[in-house]
């Protein structure tokens, strides 16, 4: 698998978030997760609309592409694979935006997330979902930073939607600030 070359050195985020939405009953699983903030030549970012009705309740929210790091993979390899599976295209990893440790008390899991900024190699998106979690993805769209801000602002301020928003918005905003560098603007 190709490694990425860090082309732009700047601040990275490091977050440690607690779940205050569901009662704590212990952590039984730690999962490493790669998340990809992938943009096209127009600076639009690929965002999933996730809709679920499960133990977390009935909620619809936005989420960046990504998923678990498989055995034998590192975070970069997983980011490239997840982008291919969820966006149907290869991406070029440009930089690591940082890390976020967050917990989901309801499922007794702690996630160790690493966020990457990436360029989508081709125009357009196609679905190629392969995992159980991907069944919750109802739609993937290319959105402008303004549309993303509006979409996340409209997400419920409770439950898993709030936990995802807390995890993702700081990294999305950092990505927005980096886009002009990569788009030549």
TrEMBL record:
It comes from the Bacteria. InterPro entries: NUDIX_hydrolase-like_dom_sf (IPR015797), NUDIX_hydrolase_CS (IPR020084), NUDIX_hydrolase_dom (IPR000086). Keywords: Hydrolase. The keyword Hydrolase applies. It holds the Pfam family NUDIX. Residues 29-166 form the Nudix hydrolase domain. One of its GO terms (molecular function) is hydrolase activity. This is NUDIX domain-containing protein. It comes from Candidatus Alloenteromonas pullistercoris.
